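Write out structure tokens for Major facilitator superfamily domain-containing protein.
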Amino acid sequence: MSSHNMARDETIADVGTGATESTGLLRDRSESSNGERRQDEGEAWVGYADFEGLPWWKRPSVWFLLVPYALFTLAFGGTVVPKLNLILELVCKRYFADRSARDPDYTFTPVVPGGDNDQCFIPEVQRSVATFMMVLNVLTGLLSALTAPKLGSLSDRYGRKLMLTVCALGGIMNEIITILAAKFPDTIHYNWLILGALFDGLTGSFTAGSVLIHSYTSDCTPPSKRGVAIGYLHSCLFMGLAFGPLLAGYFAEWTGSLLSIFYVTLGCHIFWVFSMLFVTPESLSKKRQLLAREKYEVEKAARRPPTVATRVGESGLRAMLGQKIDGVVYLMKNQNPFAPLKILVPKGAHNARLRRNFLILAFLDMVLLGAAMSGGTVIILYTEYMFGWRNLESSRFVSLVSMVRVVVLLGIFPVINYVFRTRKAARLRRESSAPIVEKNNGADEFDIWILRSAILSDVVGVIGYAVVRDPAIFVGCAIITAFGGLGSATIQAALSKHVPAERVGQLLGGIGLLHSLARIGAPILFNGIYAATVSSYPQAFFVVLAGLFTATFIASLMLKPGVYMTEDDAEPVEVVPTTPGEQDALEDDELLPRVS
């Protein structure tokens, strides 16, 4: 493996077409009537061959995902604030009940479901809620770290639809338990919500669902248009986060019950399962699934190394002991959970710059994801504690920030991308006498500067969180941080440009492991800090977060453009699988690229 520098003006485009990632998908839909037309227009891609000749409703496409995914994200976004406030009510009710049981003379205002409940906004209750949320998030993150890679591997052999359905089943069980705990709070302790988190984590949670959706999109979208397709999915996600809390807040006000939101969310999960089973076509053909299974069986048979028993003899006590020792050694070798990260540290002095870029981008990705997944909960708790906000105000806040992020991603960023990248690419295509070949040549200057700008907006906004005490100015700081939403999308694109196309799945598999670790560590850090300091200095969380973002900005200054792993020099990265399922995922990276 080696790293190289590329000229700043080098453009990535389709073979023989000059199509770039900025190419729209609308043309795809209108031209999907037959595979021959694609080839006639220079849009040849091997992925089309598996479904050539099928009617449009049997050919996989990102368009089949948009409606169910939009409803899925609406449900996900709509329950962020209500579920937090529901847990706050349940914990608060138990807190005062337990205190009254210890002190019969103690009097308190009863907790009204869906009411203002000002008595709950005290440091003791806030500390208990933050700790309980930390337990739920860590449990879900830990279990999804174990199950998400397995679901990704199984989806290579048995199809994406089945695994996407499995992910939704955990959400259904989680919502049912939440509804029961909210409807019968005196009978069902709020600790039963841990069981819901258990089901959610065992089925991969929202993280595995998103990863499998990206895998589905990669199966049926050519590389030059894959970024646009995933951009449509991201827009659905942020629009769900924008409108979900707002609609949920008004719906709760209209019905007068916080519980009604969870019934709607349960219905959205059921609709997702119905869509996956009966509407959405499978993105992996039976031929590719069977080929993946056969390859897995062949490699599994040849995977086991020579045994100790073979070396010491085939009979007697020594042979039996040798077999036992070999089993233990083999198990230890194959239970390294960090083996997928090996691709991030390629060997050789000539790969020093590549290693640095990999490690920096992985660090940035972990911080940004951890802050997004776990920091939001603490921010909502903080605003309700400091400003007296309730469910509707918190929902409006989350919706506003998410809507600004949607505008940035779908409005401002495409314009900037067109001015600084697309126009230059079009000019180079006009001036070039030969087709420009699409390949991964590392992140360019534009990627790096967009990333730095996004992180800088996070730094400024979070520092504002820590120093302001006025709710209007706090909202202004949140709008500034919304521009940081460009960071995660840019990092994912930049990482994929550092490796050949056949290694993108392997690279993103390692990044997926880091995502799971971030979901475990971030709640412990953020919720733990808030729980420990809410009564003395509740802004301590923002100080720590600002320090992390500052460190990421400094690290981004060391990124170098044009550093990449070449196809000719890339050596196979020997990754020890943690399970047979992960072994299959690594074996099939070149055949069936995936993200896990």
